[in-house]
Amino acid sequence: MQEKITITLPQNVRTALEVVLAEEGKSANDLISQAIAEYLFFRELRLLQEKLTAKAQRRGIFSEEDVFEQVS
Length: 72
Fold this sequence. Notes:
- The chain has helices spanning 11-24, 28-58, 64-71.
- It is mostly helical.
- It is elongated and about 50 Å long.
């Protein structure tokens, strides 16, 4: 199910968006939906990385060298 939302953009962002839309032949809806989906994906990835980094540090793993020592 799709739900409609309204956003307000600064004029410079709107102008840049219009240029990209023309270059890529996409609709504003498609590009903005893709941008939000990518943001959410990378946010989740960053949060997972932070969680795993904290867990590794609690185990004394602070560098790639530490990881190598653990797996060797």
